[in-house]
Structures are given as C-alpha cells and as structure tokens.
Design a protein that fits this description.
655 residues; seven-stranded mixed β-sheet; alpha+beta; 22 strands; 14% strand
C-alpha cells in the first residue's frame, strides 16, 4: 500500500547494442521519416532513431492541415521561380533577408511531390468523398482543396492530415527501415574521435532501459528538430511550451552537432514565444481570423461585424473576397506584417484605435455560424481538426457540445495595441524562442551537407528551417544526397576511446544517489536565459549569463542525479540545453548590432540592421576552441554556386 510504483522496465545500464546502417537518421519526425522512406526506396539500409515513438513523434506527429509551397500542383498559378522572387525578402518561410533560399526553393520545387508521396502511402489528401463539392476552394477536376489564396492555389488543404505520421510509420515498416523508438541520441561519432572529423555514426541511450547504443553509418542525416523550451519551464504552468512543437525538441541535435564541430548560425535569432497553458489560452482554441481560422468573420460584443480590407485598404464586402488577390497582385500569404507585395486581406488595421474610441466593444467573437457552410466546415473540422495539436481542441470542444453551426467562440482579450494579429499567441513576459521555422541551427550547402563530411541536415534542425511541407521536402532531398554519398565511401572504424568518454558522461548521473534533480536544473537554466538573454541584451548581461552557465556546469550539473533511465534522459536533456544556452549567448555577443529582422535588440549596439551586419554569423568548435565566421545572407547564389536558383537546383538535386 502506498509508496512509489515499481519502475516498469528492466534496467541494464552499460549494455551495448551495435547497429549498422548505410544511412542513419537522427530524429523520427516528418523530415526524418520522409528521408527514411526516400533512402530505403533507393536501396539503402536505413536506421531511424527517436527518443519518442516514431509513429507519432515530432512536431508534425499530431497532424497537418495545410501543405505550403505546392507550386508544382496542376492548379497552381505561380511557379517556384515566382514564389522565390516574391518571398525572398519578406514572408514567414524565409524570415526576411536572413532566410535560406536553398530550403525554400527545395520546398517550392518538391512540396507537391512530397505530398503525392504521402498520398501514395495512404493519407487522404483530396476531397475524394465529395464532402466539399462545389466549394470555392475545391478544384472539381483534381478534387484538391486550397487554403488562403484561392487564386494562386499554392497551399493545399490536407483532408486526412491527423494520421500522417501513422502513414509514414507504416511505409517505413513495409520497406524494412529499422526503427529504434525511445532511444535518445547523445553524440555524433567522428573519424578517429576527432572534433571536426567525418561523421561515422552516433551514440544513444534507451530512455526506458538505460542500455547504450552504438550506431555506425556511412552517412548520417540530422533531423532532430529545433532548439526549444530554453526560456520557459515550470511544472505549475501546464503545457507551457510551443503549441506546435514536440516537447521532445530539447536541443539535443544542436548540442551534439556543436560538440562534433558542426558550424551553426543564427543562434541569436529571437521572436516572441507562442505558448499554451499558464496565462495563455490553447492555441486555435479561441476565436480569431488568422492562420488555421483564416478568414473567419469577427464581431464585437454587440454583434457588430468588423470589416476586412485588402492590401490597398479597399473594403471587402463579401466573405469570398477575403480569399482572393488584390487587383494586380500575383499571390499572397497569410500572416502578420507581411510586405505589401504578398500581404493578405486582413481585418481593418486600425482596429485597436477603434476599440479604444468605443466603435467596437470588447470582447470579440469568431462568428462561425455566419460563414458560408463550406468555409465554416473547412475552418472547424478540416483545418482545426487536423492542425497538429488542435485536433485535441476539435474533439474536446465537440464532446462538450460546441456546435459551429450555432455557437461563436470568444477571442481572448488582450491589450488593444496588440490586438489582432495573433491574439491566441499569448506571451509571458520578455521570453524569447527559437522553436519555430526560421530560427537558428546547422549551416549547410546546396547538398544539405554540413561542414562535416558524412553529415547532412533536413527539417528544422537546419537554420531558417521551414514548416511541415518544408521538412518533408528537405527530408526526401537530403536522403538522395546521403545515399549517393554512402554508395561511394568505405566503412571507418569507430573510436573506442570516444565511446568510453561518452559512456562515462551519460551514465554519471546514475552513479549518484542524491544531488540536483532534472526539474531544478532545467528551471535554473531557464531562469538564466530569462534574466541574461531576454528581449534586450548588452555585453554585460550576456557575459554574466555565461558566467552563470559556467557555474551551473561546474556545480549543479556536475551533481545532477537520476534514479532511473527516464530521469537520466531528462538530465541529459538539461546537459543539451546547457550547451545550447552557451551557444545562444555567445552568438548574441558576436552580433554587434540590433536587428528587426532577427528580433534582436542590443542596448549597447542600438543601430537597427546596419548594412555591414546583414550577414550570417557562424560559430563552431575546433579542437575545443570557438571559431567565429561569417557568410553573405545570399551565399547560396554566390561562387562556387550558380547565380540562379534553378541552375543550382538542377546541379545538386540528384536523381
């Protein structure tokens, strides 16, 4: 009676498992799974490793409702070349001038092909049951359905997106891909165990049994996702993390890449943190008119409808007009503060002022019942029902009796000056994030190869990473390059010395019976980032942050203990966060200018985006010493590369 439950798995610390692969994929999210299938179809022996269950892991594990950048679909009116021209300096895919043209062009060229892949594997992409027959957003010939821009038709609604990872998983199993669930990867193995050497595999630890894995590979693809959750952690704030992101995104890939000598960039990039839980409402769970809810009618507390305007301020009088381009506009994207060329229709931009004057009365509501039936069911069902974690919103509200044909959803009340871009993305003070597309990560070339031989990157592990479709597209592309490389090289032996060093490091917490627990360690690291790498930075605060991280490394981290393999995995995540935090602070010190494009504010260097700082600052380790470098933001169109996207793509994309 009473007491703690017995640990449910056998504990076998130190037991070694040797696994060989032609192509080793670290991370079983969308990018990793698409890479695995692509590589296996090319005849490679493929191994996928993930700390969660691959069947549902990753930031796309809960689903996807819309598939971006599908320019080559038969209904699209914009080409990849037109898309890259429109978006190179201004949309949410490329994040202004610091975006990456390589992954974006791959997206525009291969997104639709990647979607056809998942359709072949069993995902219901089209309106095959004619549920939306006659809808303005549906193409009657192909039965494809489109989101947002009904003229350009470059973004496809995915009819069965909630089950997409299950389809990936089943296809991998059918092709004989070896999947290692619940194994956290701890380090990259390199030739001779040297920092900067060719990558020849990785090490891992089972989060259930504690046994050790030695993965040997000819080629490795890093798809571990983004560096997430660095600023916020509290066991009392339920769900205080990115509403899109997998909670297993814990900087492991960033840390192991850094320690191996991989070049990182844009680690200083910052953005307001979208969170759910705590002081915020569930994402997509309150009424709004953006993203998944675009372009829902909004009314005030008295039922007064809020007008919509196009990019030129022209009043839109029908719901249909909200989904069409302005006169002379080629295409638009849904998102806040976009440049004029690609700005979508939106609610009147002076809404905050009108609220202050009393013209509209808070609170506001999303008026689903007044929407045309097809649009209403597309928002509440097709979109909310499949957009990642919003499926929970859809099912929970439905069980509670919410009826979109009769009920409205209130918009959470925020200060009027912040009101109507993304009101459901509450922030909790001056925290910053890198959880989503466009953040810092691994630097790469047109082959999606890193500076280390044998190591490729796909998805959001690479800097300026994209969305679900971008992860799928770069995964299938990186696989082609990795397989071609693996076919040309011989096996190299792993360094036993490197393995023993790593085993000593990862098992140290289980040799202690008391000390600091993982929750305290993670909370302390988050506090350092909040206090010393917040919204406004200067050299003194960043330097103090590094001092505190050194102190934690020498004291609390060195005394961290784990009572079982589950806790060991959580401690190892804290070690990864500690490494990533140091890289972020050092990158912030190296950028001696402020940048609106990067959300980066240096109080001691207040000039915003001076021309000489419109560049990528890179960091890497060489023999334990940090090396700082730089690249032009458009390095992908500079020598030794061709000067056009199409020429580079044709030269590097592979068969």
């Amino acid at each position: 009676m009473g007491g703690a439950a017995e640990y449910p798995y056998p504990v076998v610390y130190g037991k070694e498992n040797d696994v060989e692969a032609d192509v080793l994929i670290l991370g079983g999210g969308v990018a990793g799974c698409h890479a695995a299938v692509s590589a296996a179809k090319r005849g490679a022996r493929v191994v996928v490793v993930d700390k969660g269950p691959v069947i549902r892991s990753g930031s796309g594990g809960a689903g996807v409702d819309h598939w971006h950048g599908a320019c080559t679909n038969p209904c699209s009116t914009v080409s990849p070349e037109e898309m890259i021209e429109m978006t190179l300096y201004g949309d949410y895919l490329l994040h202004w001038e610091f975006g990456n043209g390589i992954t974006s062009y791959i997206l525009f060229k291969e997104s639709y092909d990647a979607l056809l892949d998942v359709e072949e594997w069993g995902v219901k992409v089209r309106d095959v049951d004619d549920e939306f027959k006659g809808a303005e957003f549906r193409d009657e010939k192909t039965k494809l359905m489109f989101a947002y821009d009904y003229d350009a038709r470059h973004c496809i609604r995915v009819n069965g997106g909630a089950g997409i990872k299950v389809a990936y998983y089943n296809e991998m199993k059918r092709l004989g891909v070896q999947i290692h669930d619940f194994v956290t990867v701890t380090s990259l193995l390199t030739e001779g165990g040297r920092q900067g050497g060719r990558v020849i595999g990785a090490t891992g630890v089972s989060v259930r049994t504690g046994e050790f894995y030695i993965f040997k590979a000819k080629a490795t693809i890093l798809t571990t996702g983004v560096t997430a959750g660095m600023w916020i952690f509290s066991t009392e704030l339920n769900g205080a993390a990115s509403s899109h992101g997998d909670p297993n995104d814990t900087a492991d890939g960033t840390a192991m890449a850094w320690q191996a000598g991989v070049e990182l960039t844009l680690m200083e990039k910052a953005s307001p943190m979208p969170v759910s839980g705590g002081f915020a409402y569930p994402m997509y769970g309150t009424g709004n008119a953006h993203n998944t809810w675009y372009a829902c009618t909004m009314v005030d507390a008295n039922g007064k409808e809020i007008p919509w305007v196009d990019r030129d301020g022209r009043l839109l009088t029908t719901v249909s007009e909200r989904y069409h381009d302005a006169p002379g506009q080629k295409a638009f994207f849904n998102g806040p503060d976009l440049p004029y060329e690609i700005r979508s229709p939106r609610l009147i931009p002076d809404l905050p002022e009108r609220i202050k004057r009393g013209e509209y009365v808070l609170p506001l509501y999303a008026d689903l019942p007044s929407m045309p039936p097809h649009e209403r069911r597309a928002i509440w069902g097709l979109m909310v029902g499949h957009e990642g974690k919003s499926h929970i919103i859809y099912t929970t509200y439905g069980k509670a009796g919410f009826d979109p044909d009769k009920d409205m959803l209130q918009t959470n009340v925020m200060p009027p000056d912040r009101y109507f871009f993304y009101p459901y993305w509450n922030t909790m003070g001056p925290r910053q994030w890198r959880e989503g597309p466009g953040g810092g990560g691994v630097f790469f070339d047109w082959d999606l190869k890193t500076n280390l031989e044998g190591l490729y990157v796909a998805g959001t592990a690479g800097y300026a990473g994209g969305n679900h479709a971008g992860s799928a597209s770069t995964g299938r592309y990186a696989a082609r390059k990795a397989v071609a490389y693996a076919d040309t090289i011989e096996w190299l032996p792993v360094s036993r010395e490197q393995i023993e060093r790593e085993k000593a490091r990862v098992y140290a917490p289980v040799t202690r019976s008391e000390g600091i627990g993982w929750k305290e360690l993670r909370a302390g690291l988050a506090r350092i980032m909040q206090d010393y790498c917040g919204e406004y930075k200067n050299e003194e605060t960043l330097g103090m942050g590094l001092q505190w991280l050194d102190s934690i490394r020498e004291s609390e981290a060195a005394r961290a203990y784990a009572r079982n393999p589950h806790e060991l995995a959580r401690v190892l995540e804290c070690y990864s966060r500690l490494t990533a935090a140091e890289v972020i602070l050092r990158a912030s010190l190296e950028r001696k200018a402020s940048s609106k494009a990067l959300g980066f504010n240096r109080l001691d260097y207040p000039q915003m985006d001076p021309p000489e700082w419109t560049k990528l600052v890179t960091l890497r380790l060489e023999e334990g010493e940090m090396k700082v470098g730089e690249h032009p933001v458009d390095y992908y169109l500079k020598a030794p590369y061709a000067s056009s996207f199409e020429d580079n793509y044709r030269e590097h994309c592979g068969p």
